[in-house]
Amino acid sequence: MDSPPEEAFDRAVRLATRLLGTPVGLVSLVDGQRQFFKAQTGLPEPTATARETPLTHSFCQHVVTSDAPLTVHDAREDPLVQDNLAIRDLGVIAYLGVPLHAPDGQVLGSFCAIQSEPRDWTEAELATLTDIAAGIETEIKLRDEVVRNADLAERATAAEERFRLALHAGQVGTYDFDPRTQQTRWDQELYAIWGVATDVADVFAAVQQSIHADDLQMWEADVAASLDPDGTGQHDIEMRIYRPDSGEMRWMHAMGQASFENGIPVRLIGTVRDITAQKEAAEREKLLAHELNHRVKNLFAVVSGMISMTARNSTTPDDMATALRGRVQALSAAHALIQPAISGEQLETSQVTLQTLTAALLEPHMRGADAVTLAGPALPLEPGTASSLALVLHELATNAAKYGALSASEGKLDVTWALSDDDGAEVLTFQWGENGGPPVAAAPTAKGFGSKLIEMTVNAQMRGRLKSDWATSGVHHTLTIPFDYLQKG
């Protein structure tokens, strides 16, 4: 309704009026209030310009309601239409109309021929009008298909865009591999994830070359299994790669599904996702679990040592309770300092100095004023530096309380630090010296988790060095840390 004239419909009306010899022909679309002339010829003004009439002037409405042809010899004598105002205002006397249907079968209107005087319509004339009407219905169907296809194309484009955005948000790339030609098609996201240039001629070869040597055979076996017609066709593997653009090692999770024709694999389609962050998180969880077990064991050993040492130096149960309570509280404070380094969080504290940090970590093991000596300049520490350094010092203090100078009543610990020059670079040299404790037989033959944790923190995080001298009188550690790390962390 209300669409502009179109040649395809106008041509049908002109053809009908020529073949039937009538002055008026219409393609009339009817709704509940009016009839609208999609095509017309021979109507008087102002109806021709208006291109519509109310139903009071419509014979076509009867074609629509009956869904059948309507033949009127003389409207003035026909009971169905003799009161219709089209007789008086439009000169409609003889009328021949056939229904026009939508693709779903619904009646849209009428295709009709009109005469201004009585006429006996023949079966041949009705057949002619019906045939032309069928052509109009075909045109309507074609137009409906065009609109439907355009809508489907628009929906497909929108769905594809949503899919692309979802893959991009999830950092997921897609691939399409043809095992017959060894040709692989990637989307832009996968090129970015894998670090392969988009102009690489052989993507499959680039993939093979970038997979970690220890994972290449596993990947090849998984791909071969997915292309086996006797298998499930599923490809699912986690592997390491070295990005061709940066050389960085990353973890990838590749999944796919193969399709077959006559028992021959013809296609493998799937997705690839970078799971490096998840792998690192899992490794960190594993390290945290090991660290927790290590801490609990150390805690029991330290508390046991505290109880024995406090009992030997206390005269009454109240004295022992007071001293032990203070040391346990100090131990809790020391653990609060190392917790950020273990969990990866930032130390929530105002700026601390190396002096206050060391004193806080050694406080649980103090037996007297001369048991521990601290000496060195007041060096401010950034939160990240303080957390990492607290982890190292806590581990040294725990070992001293379990096996070294802090485990014996006569043991002493001297801790000193100073800034110095190391081949043109300013460094902090931190000295940890124990004596008076149980005799040291020799350096440990195997490194426990605590020793590995110290080395990992000093070497990897702090970019420093740790040298240990296992003298019989007591162990001596020398820790060297770049001064710029103390400032920036």
Question: Your description of this structure?
Answer:
With 489 residues, the protein is of the alpha+beta class. Helices cover 45% and strands 26% of the residues. The chain has 14 helices and 18 strands. It has helices at residues 7-20, 47-50, 60-66, 86-90, 123-169, 188-194, 203-210, 213-226, 276-312, 317-343, 354-362, 383-402, 449-461, 483-488; strands spanning 24-30, 34-41, 52-54, 70-72, 94-101, 107-115, 172-178, 183-186, 234-242, 249-261, 264-274, 352-353, 372-375, 380-381, 412-422, 425-435, 465-471, 474-482. Strands 3-2-1-6-5-4 form a 6-stranded antiparallel β-sheet, with helices on both faces. A hairpin with a 2-residue loop joins strand 10 (249-261) and strand 11 (264-274). It is elongated and about 135 Å long. The two termini are 74 Å apart. The mean pLDDT is 85.
